[in-house]
Amino acid sequence: MDLSLTQKRFLNEWMEFLKIPSVSADPAYKNDVKTAAEWVNNALQKAGCKHTEIIETPGHPIVYGEYKVDPNLPTILVYGHYDVQPPDPIELWDSPPFEPVIKTTEIHPEGAVFARGACDDKGQVFMHVKALEVMLSEGAIDCNIKFMIEGEEEVGSDNLEDFVRNNNEKLKCDVILISDTGMISKTQPSISTGLRGLSYMEVIVTGPNRDLHSGLYGGSVANPINILCEMIAKLHDENRKITIPGFYDRVEELSQEERNEMAKAPFDLEEFKSSIGINAVQGEEGYSNEERRTIRPTLDVNGIWGGYTGEGAKTVIASKAHAKISMRLVPGQEWNEISDLFTTYFKSLAPEGVTVEVEKHHGGYAYVTPTETIGYQAAHKAYLETFGIPPIPSRGGGSIPIVPMFEKELGVKSILMGFGLDSDAIHSPNEHYGLFNFFKGIDTIPNFYRHYVALYNEK
Predict the structure, then answer these.
(1) Beta bridge partners of 113
(2) CATH number, domain 5-195+366-458
(3) C-alpha to C-alpha distance for 51 and 67, rounded to whole angstroms
(4) Tens of pLDDT, residues 334-351
(5) CATH classification of 197-261+268-284+293-364, choosing from 3.30.70.360, 1.20.1260.10, 2.70.98.70, 3.40.50.300?
(6) Is the pLDDT of residue 140 over 90?
(7) What is the reported pTM?
(8) 3-state class of 291 per DSSP?
(9) 182-205: b or e for each residue (b if 16 or more CB lie within 10 Å)?
(10) Which end of the chain, N or C, is less surrounded by CB atoms within 10 Å?
(11) Which helix (DSSP H) or strand (DSSP E) does residue 446 occupy?
């Protein structure tokens, strides 16, 4: 891919950003997270923000920046995050996660940057920073732009809601612009019109007061690991429906017409299976693969451990067994209620001989954005102009719990303009983001502002 001098500079700066191991989940990286906040603050200043600040929270800092033109003009608030997922398991990376490298792939023959955070969300956040720089280099901007870049998204954004609630005037805007989602393909852009909610739980099953010799005690006491596996297996029935009583009571069912519209999005099941190395898909009976990933609630074990997991053998019955479990929720489901339903049901599955603890980590609501707003229409026009093909509205399977919170606290809609691909391996080893996608984002974002201002003035 032939790059201009400016594009080469943008690429080099982006790779410097990726070298900072801003892992918010691990206290060992606290100083690195702070360094990343300072880096973002400096980047906003260099791009042309007239005011920036690093705002401390009880957790990791929030970076705020603004380019104000005229209070009578529309204001767009850009949200993103500079923190990243832990890189584990390190041994599965083909190159060090915080030493970004450019490699070609079948999907990205022009090259992609491999590093933790390349796509989620440093690459996509940095597109917005550079889009501001591009717009200022080309002339006047006919709107006000604010940036709110946080450092706790990957751990639940625990302090963001208080910040937003206490800074309504500072964050006052007409629409929120977010690039933390993806699109269908490099040739078929799409706009995310919905996100699933989330309930994240941790469970501990405890049996004996210490690890026991499996020869002396095996067969006579409840084994917490065995019991935990049996309890987890009971969370789904033979049709892959979740068995928690009341779990589906508030689920909003889409009409067949809506499902038919969703099915128009291009999707190749064989390509999907091949991309993740499986020979068959599995999920709730009665729904397509894409519906299972987007409009249906799910329950998955994200981690399970206990006993001896080191090299060689150690014959023990573990005292404790642990699991982390997440539930993706759909419109209508209230995450605190679902968390309570899970707690009650999971504890009821425990036999005598063990005790069960359930901890609620964090969660959030599902979100649906209407397509008739001027924000959505501006995004549609922006993609059409850049890609030469209309974007398809699509529901996303992931969760961004702060999006419904923004609407509640600020009273405005969010537009989800993502440029990532399913193949980018976010949250996984070898995360990457294509150069094509990165630079297409920088080209498309200024178009959004221009079309938004035009539609706003027509109101």
Answers:
(1) 102, 433
(2) 3.40.630.10
(3) 7
(4) 999 999 999 999 999 999
(5) 3.30.70.360
(6) no
(7) 0.83
(8) helix
(9) bbbebebbbbbbbbbbbbbbebbb
(10) C
(11) helix 435-458
